[in-house]
Amino acid sequence: MIAVISPAKTLDYKSPLPDLAPTEPHFAAEACTLAQAAAGLGEDKLSSLMRISPALAKLNAERFRDFATATERPAMFAFAGDVYTGLEAKTLDEPAVLFAQDHLRMLSGLYGLLRPLDAMRPYRLEMGTRWAPRGDKLTDWWGDRIAKRLSDEVEAEGSGTILNLASQEYWHAVDGKLPAAVRVIAVDFREGDRFISFHAKKARGAMARWMVEHAITDNDAMRGFDSDGYGFDAANSTPTQWRFVR
Predict the structure, then answer these.
(1) What pLDDT digit, counting tens, does each position of 210-240 carry?
(2) Is residue 204 in some structural domain?
(3) 161 inside domain
(4) What's the Cα-to-Cα distance from 181 to each of 44, 64, 105, rounded to whole Å?
């Protein structure tokens, strides 16, 4: 099983890192191509495209401009935000991090698909951005490349299963593009009968953590997830849509 999560807008390039060798992203060249193209947009265009403040637009224009020489950090320790609050990567031990390297992936607007230890430069580029080099949308620019890479990794891992813990925006990059043989299990987190986005994001990270902490390789064993008071709701689940409630 490979679990897939979304990235985060908030980044952390200051806290201490574990003594583990970083790896190279599969789509490193594509990331450089996108960053170089985005560097030509300018602050006003970035502000409009991303719906961000002038200050954030200036920061990200500088990031794209200086991308080739920017500091790198393993992706799982660079992303912050709600999902990564649940993941608590900084408190994982080395065996859990190495298990995550084989069984956890992060979708990315700039890097396509990242492993936890892949060296990542700071950026902000959401998958839903309606811009791309010589195109109208970022998802169109990526086409089926992310899905092909993900399906290849699932085949190499051996389970044939993806645990989808990503947001709809990011899952759209692979939805409908995976081979029929790949089983996708989507997970829905509820507070009673209510969906609350903040809690769901944190729960996605907590489930990813539970998987790597316990080195779960059996699909059905993931139904045992019980962090933060969640429990599997069999009555409202299907083989491809699991619900967890607290």
Answers:
(1) 999 999 999 999 999 999 999 999 999 999 9
(2) yes
(3) yes
(4) 45, 38, 19
